[in-house]
Amino acid sequence: MNAACEVVSGSGSVARRADSLVWASEQVSDAVWETLLSCLALGGRAQGAAPLLHALAGTMVDEDDDTAFAVLVSDGRTGFLLRRGRVDVTLDGQPLDNGVVVPVTVDGRTVAAGDPEAVQALIGRAPSTRHDLCDGAVAGAAFRWSAVTAMAPPAVTEESARLHVGTDPPGYPDSSNGSSQRTGAAAPDPLAAVSGRLRRPDAPAGADTHGEGTSDPEQTEFHPPPQTDETPSPAQQRSVGVLVFEDGGTANLTGDVVLGRRPERHQLVESGQAQPLVIHDPEHVLSSAHAAVRLQGDDVVVVDLDSLNGTHVAAPDAKDWTKLTSGAPYPVQDGYRMLLGWTVLTYRSDHP
After folding, report:
1. In angstroms, how far is CA 33 from the centroid of its own chain?
2. Nearest to 106, CA basis, from 156, 154, 43, 48
3. Closest CA to 126 of 96, 93, 152, 94
């Protein structure tokens, strides 16, 4: 869908990818901002975004009260909105119902979100396409996404997947730069959340925004453990079940495995205690070694390996996700689901 996105100048940040948008207050940390950016990649499968947004909301309970944001995950027709803190959200000028994660229908409608005063200023004036944020990130106190004042944006390509307002901002990140610095804050290990790597507008010039960080379930790929001439141990020979990905792929569990973008570098793999299970992650949302599934006697446990986005687990009938404490084994049984970044997989036992 073609739609215009106005941005009100002021403190805070606004980012857009296709018909998904995010606004965050200036108090939002770089690590949280990068996580919010990763949500924009869910627009193509917005109908399945609700559980992931609920899980993300659960990770924000310890954030400062001044941390305010709104994320609209949309395919241009329907979607979900996640919000936190002092933020106003309106649909066609009317306040959206209360709730942390709210389903919305946006086809032919206008959505505004951001600082309450800025939102009121937006809805009090007629829509305009003079300054249309097509793709990228800019400083701003609020945004108004409007299908009513739509204008055709340029096709987004590898070269054009940047800010289409004026020229690229000074200090646009260079993928060859491996450092990440921000005055007054510890350097985060952020996510490359969108095509073209969006940079927070108030980040210092040259700051790199790629790093550790749920991959696209529709593009999930994994590689079998390398074949060796060594005789596997009895624990490795016995199968305890399979891991089933949302795209239908499966991986047999015949021993401990480490999952992530580059799990072969983890000490459990290098020491021979586990096999690597590589997940193709074009959005760079998984950590290199994100989580491990290990066999402990007759039990199967999941361990978060100090991942950036965290590992969550849910029982078959559970509505909410439980975030794992890094390094603490969590027993799972047949039908338990695991959420690694945005990647969802289910454990199926050979002996349910």
Report:
1. 10
2. 43
3. 93
- The whole-model pTM stands at 0.50
- With beta carbons less than 8 A apart as the criterion, state whether 310 and 302 touch: no
* Residues in CB range of 179: below 8 A, 6 or more apart: 187, 207, 208
Beta-bridge mates of residue 110: 146
Domain identity same for 344 and 207: no
Residues 259 and 307 in one domain: yes
Name the average pLDDT for the chain: 74
Residue of 7 and 160 predicted with greater confidence:
7
- Same domain? For 158 and 71 the reply is yes
Q: Are residues 193 and 242 in the same domain?
A: no
Distances from the Cα of 117 to the Cαs of 11, 48, 71, 139, 232, in angstroms?
Answer: 12, 32, 18, 16, 65
pLDDT at 242: 93
HSE-up of 68 (CA within 13 Å, CB side)?
A: 16
The CA distance from 235 to 5, in Å, is 56
> Mind spelling out the 3-state secondary structure of 107-142?
CCCEEEEECHHHHHHHHCCCCCCCCCCCCEEEECCE
Judgement on whether residues 164 and 236 belong to the same structural domain of the protein: no
Q: Distance between CA atoms of 256 and 241, rounded to whole angstroms?
A: 12
Quick one: pLDDT at residue 64? 73
Contact 318, 336 (CB under 8 A): no
Place of tokens 């004042």: 149
Beta carbons within 8 Å of 171's beta carbon, 6+ residues apart = 199, 203, 204, 205, 206, 207
How far, in Å, CA of 230 to CA of 232, rounded? 6
If asked whether residues 162 and 296 sit together in one domain, one would say no
Which residue range forms the structural domain that includes residue 90?
1-211
